[in-house]
Amino acid sequence: MNDSALxxxxxxxxxxxxxxxxxxxxxxxxxxxxxxPHMALGVDxxxxxxxxxxxxxxxxxxxxxAVPYGYKSQPRSxxxxxxPGTISLDAHTLSLVVRDVIRGLGHDGVRRVVVxxxxxxxxxxxxxxxxxxxxxxRRDGITDMQILRLEYWDFxxxxxxxxxxxxxxxxxxLEHASLLxxxxxxxxxxxxVDMGKVPSDGPARVPAYDRYPQPSGFIPASxxxxxxxxxxxxxxxxxxxxxxxxxxxxxxxxxxx
Length: 257
Ligand code: ZN
Ligand code: MN
Known about the structure:
Blueprint: H1 12-20, E1 25-29, H2 43-59, E2 62-63, E3 70-71, H3 75-78, E4 88-89, H4 91-107, E5 112-117, H5 123-139, E6 146-151, H6 158-164, H7 179-188, H8 233-255
Parallel strand pairs: 1-2, 1-5, 3-4, 5-6
Helix pairs in contact: 2-7, 2-8, 4-5, 7-8
């Protein structure tokens, strides 16, 4: 039997067999979004998918294809919508995609789904999609679907953050295309990172409010919100180790596996 943890690499009988054995299915929610001049547009798809694949291997789960578009990039967490290549969904659209995928999985017999966000702005549309899916499934007579929703970057040890940021952690929002994501990409897809193009126009100094329309100069022109210069694949390994171990623990705990 094909042993891939990726649903897209399984045949339907192989997928059905895993579902019959009670496999947990992971649904990464990504984005197609600028990540500075030094990284590819698919960072928010690649990173959560990589974490989910490793966790799925640990627990005998399956990773569904990631949703490659996310909710609209916000200036204070993703640079905003004005960068070429940042292509986003309306919140309503994303929530309906999440609803439809979970509903389909539920009708196939899946009873445990982990919705793993790799893009900051996906959180609330994901929550809406989960709620709509559970409501529909209940109406269809499926009352035992369980769902966990998480952001992979929350699963990191305090000591790791202290090692990564001796001068203090700037917070996950501002870390867009910065040290964490760049280090993680250097480990997983170094072919998609060009450290020679890391900008030095950060960190962003944004106020504690949003303004519409976004004023010019609100964020660094490069789209990188904090600093990426000290990114290294070794640091990416620290992150990967924490994320995989702690998400595995969380899924076991959340689903009582
Ligand atoms: Zn990102
Ligand atoms: Mn993002």
